[in-house]
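lol ok so funny story. i was supposed to be doing the assay writeup but got distracted and ended up predicting the structure for this chain instead. priorities right. anyway since i did it might as well share w the group, maybe its usefull for someone
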Amino acid sequence: SSGINAEYGAILQDPTKFLDSLFKFDKDNIPDDVIKKIQPYIDSEDFTPQAIQRVSKACTSICQWVRAMHKYHFVSKSVAPKRARLKEAQTQLDTTMQILNDAKERLQEVEDRVATLQAKYDE
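and the output, tada:
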């Protein structure tokens, strides 16, 4: 536990490192247990940007960031299946287009042969 406190202390001692960790935060893979842990804060009237601003301007931004990550988590979860379906549809479209292009090439070969035979016939 003291290791965790030391880690957090080090982050707070170096604001640049702290900001960097926020920018590099893996928002696409927030574990559900983390969301469950912050949910009571999200639900609290004391954890709104307006309420936090009365106490600390700096913490207001952190509050907004936490709320944004929380919201992003749920939006991302609802969009993920749609992205998967889009990718699947795109793959099917690519396959269908390849089949169509192959058929067009074969048609062109047949039309070229017909034109050659027609030219020979007309001689």
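The chain has a mean pLDDT of 90. The chain is about 85% helix and 0% strand.
back to the writeup now i swear
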